[in-house]
Amino acid sequence: KDDIVRNIIKANKTPGIDVIILGRGGGSIEDLWCLNEEEVARAIFNSKIPIISAVGHETDITIADFVSDLRAPTPTGAAELAVPNKVDLLRLLEQRKDYLNQIISSRLNLHYQNLRKLRSSYVFISPHRIYEQHYLKLDRLYANLDKHSPKNYLTHLQESLNSKINRLNYAFERVYTSLNNSFSQLINKLELVNPLNVINKGYALVKKDDKAVTSVNDVIINDKISLYLKDGNLECEVLSKEVKDYDRKDI
Predict the structure, then answer these.
(1) Number of domains in the chain
(2) What is the DSSP string of the chain?
(3) Does 248 reside within a domain?
(4) Which range of residues forms the domain containing residue 169?
(5) In a domain, 244, yes or no
(6) What is the pLDDT, as a whole number, of residue 106?
(7) Global pTM value
(8) Looking at the domain assignment, is residue 247 inside a domain?
(9) Are residues 137 and 187 in the same domain?
(10) What is the pLDDT of residues 167-183, one digit of tens each?
């Protein structure tokens, strides 16, 4: 028991050991009892190096078999498990080589396809198209900025104001012309009924006490009357009066 524990610990401290085979020939249960000891089981469990248990014959079972990393039916079987078959290793290496070749070929083919896509891309065929798109976008931004610039906005407001002023002036001129024509018509109408125009034709305006005299019956003998002529006034006294019936032909 102590030798087994000591040798397991020693093997773990010795560099270059890949595997430990814990084996012996068959025997009675008493001969194999040391492999059921707790100290041996703990040493096997704490070992950093894999341990193959190969004690006795295939029918012999100990606690060491359950704690070990692998159980072999016999020491010979343990040796076969610890050292792989050369043919199997070569076959495994060949499989790994084929697998690596497939991966490398697939990667190379993928990169080749990507390279072909890049070579046919407009970036390599026409590199200037890259910055042309940015130039177009920049031109649109400049146009949009110019459209919404304060200067253009003020210019637009000024043009709108000028247009409204012109329309207002035009409307004012039309109203003024209409009112002026109406005023001229009223003046003409007033001129037609203006008594001064009649006086200018040789007639006189007769008033008594600042009231117009329209009939001889409005005055009596010795009344003071005023005659308004085109170039002055006359103060007269009624000496006589005569009533006559004038018709249109006598005027």
Answers:
(1) 4
(2) -HHHHHHHHHHHHSTT---EEEEE----TTTTGGGGSHHHHHHHHH-SS-EEEEESSTT---HHHHHSSEE-SSHHHHHHHHS--HHHHHHHHHHHHHHHHHHHHHHHHHHHHHHHHHHHSHHHH-THHHHHHHHHHHHHHHHHHHHT-HHHHHHHHHHHHHHHHHHHHHHHHHHHHHHHHHHHHHHHHHHHH-HHHHHHTT--EEEETTEE--SGGG--TT-EEEEEETTEEEEEE----------GGG-
(3) no
(4) 131-193
(5) no
(6) 92
(7) 0.35
(8) no
(9) yes
(10) 999 988 998 889 998 88
